[in-house]
């Protein structure tokens, strides 16, 4: 049988190993938290550089009026797409249109809240090909701010835009796609 002195002598190395392991686990946990915290600005920067899922700040900066020089020698086909990530129907009212660069155009998207509760939602645009994003100038868009949809409410939401005449000549078709998603879960019912 072991004496208490022998037992304590055997526990000392185990305690050291346990303390060392605890230290490593704390470091790993802090690093994981730091990685998660730092991922948001890194993701935003990657999206900004690649032109993917750019939110409205750059869309709202319109340099010049843009409608002063319509390039009638070119025709661009603009295709529209709507994706719903939530309890509603969301779609463009037209599948595609043809425009001249510099020409001001308006299209409408329809959304219907199919729930008996109010919902806050946001639309995020994306463009194909990616190089077209810098030349797609929106003057007015429902994607600039959150939308509050009342219970069973239907809305028609306009997008007013023009295509910058500096769009490369090899781009003949642009797809504007929106993903419409619920922002912060259920909201309180309207009184």
From TrEMBL:
InterPro entries: CtaG/Cox11_dom_sf, Cyt_c_oxidase_assmbl_CtaG. One of its GO terms (molecular function) is copper ion binding. The keyword Plastid does not apply. It comes from the Bacteria. It is found in: Cell inner membrane. GO terms for cellular component: plasma membrane. Pfam families: CtaG_Cox11 (PF04442). Its main location: membrane. The chain crosses the membrane at residues 21-40. It is a single-pass type II membrane protein. Keywords: Copper, Membrane, Signal-anchor, Transmembrane, Transmembrane helix. Exerts its effect at some terminal stage of cytochrome c oxidase synthesis, probably by being involved in the insertion of the copper B into subunit I. Belongs to the COX11/CtaG family. This is Cytochrome c oxidase assembly protein CtaG. The lineage of its organism: Bacteria, Pseudomonadati, Pseudomonadota, Betaproteobacteria, Burkholderiales.
């Amino acid at each position: 049988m072991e004496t208490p002195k022998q037992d304590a002598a055997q526990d000392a190395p185990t305690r050291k190993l346990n303390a060392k392991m605890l230290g490593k686990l704390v470091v790993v946990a802090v690093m994981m938290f730091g990685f998660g915290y730092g991922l948001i600005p890194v993701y935003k920067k990657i999206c900004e550089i690649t032109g993917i899922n750019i939110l409205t700040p750059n869309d709202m900066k319109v340099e010049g009026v843009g409608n002063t020089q319509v390039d009638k020698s070119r025709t661009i086909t603009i295709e529209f797409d709507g994706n719903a990530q939530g309890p509603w129907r969301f779609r463009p009212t037209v599948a595609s249109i043809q425009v001249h660069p510099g020409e001001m155009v308006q299209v409408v998207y329809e959304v219907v809240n199919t729930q008996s509760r109010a919902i806050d939602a946001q639309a995020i645009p994306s463009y194909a090909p990616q190089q077209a994003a810098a030349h797609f100038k929106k003057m007015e868009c429902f994607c600039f701010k959150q939308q509050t949809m009342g219970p069973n409410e239907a809305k028609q939401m306009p997008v007013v835009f023009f295509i910058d005449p500096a769009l490369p000549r090899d781009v003949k078709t642009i797809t504007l796609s929106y993903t419409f998603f619920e922002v912060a879960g259920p909201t309180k019912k309207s009184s």
